[in-house]
Amino acid sequence: MSSLTVGSIGVVYVGSKDGNVYAINPDGTKKWEFKTRNWVQSSPAIGRDGTVYVGSDDSYLYALDGATGEKLWAYRTGGKVVSAPAIGLDGTVYVGSHDCQLHAVGGLTWKGEVDEGAPGSRDRAG
Question: Phi/psi zone of residue 75: left (φ > 0), alpha (ψ -120 to 50 degrees), beta?
């Protein structure tokens, strides 16, 4: 299960091993759920406009409407997304994935390779 993220009006967003992203109202009732194709270990991030961004072990980064849970778009990476997305001031969403790439999605979409020799990076030889 991912870490919790709390929105401005107290709604809690969290991913789960059942493949869902949940939005929970402040009173504890379920607001909505969104089904991915695999575990959701990535912690959600919330954009200025209320969009919820979250990665999944299904290799996608999702943008969800924070009010309804409707999928706005999905971006396919080359590997599982377990890290939490980061949102730049210009709205660009940055996320790393298990393909050793850093992906930037938004106004300028790109990906760059992560140095495999960097501390904490995955060792492909072993």
Answer: beta
- Cα separation, 89 vs 28, in Å, equals 31
DSSP of 32-56: EEEE-SS---SPPEE-TTS-EEEE-
Per-residue buried b or exposed e for 79-105, using 16+ beta carbons within 10 Å of the residue's own CB: ebbbbbbebeeeeebbbbbebbbbbbb
- The angle at the Cα of 13, spanning 9 to 17, to the nearest 5 degrees, equals 170
Question: Pairing between strand 101-105 and 86-87?
Answer: unpaired
Q: Quickly tell me which residue has 């939490």 as its tokens.
A: 84
Which pLDDT tens digit goes with each residue over 17-66?
999 999 999 999 999 999 999 999 999 999 999 999 999 999 999 999 99
Nearest to 75 by CA among 106, 45, 49: 106
Instruction: Quote the pTM value.
Output: 0.84
The number of residues making up the chain comes to 126
Quote the strand ranges of 10-117, DSSP E. 12-15, 20-24, 30-35, 45-46, 52-55, 60-64, 71-76, 86-87, 93-97, 101-105, 110-113
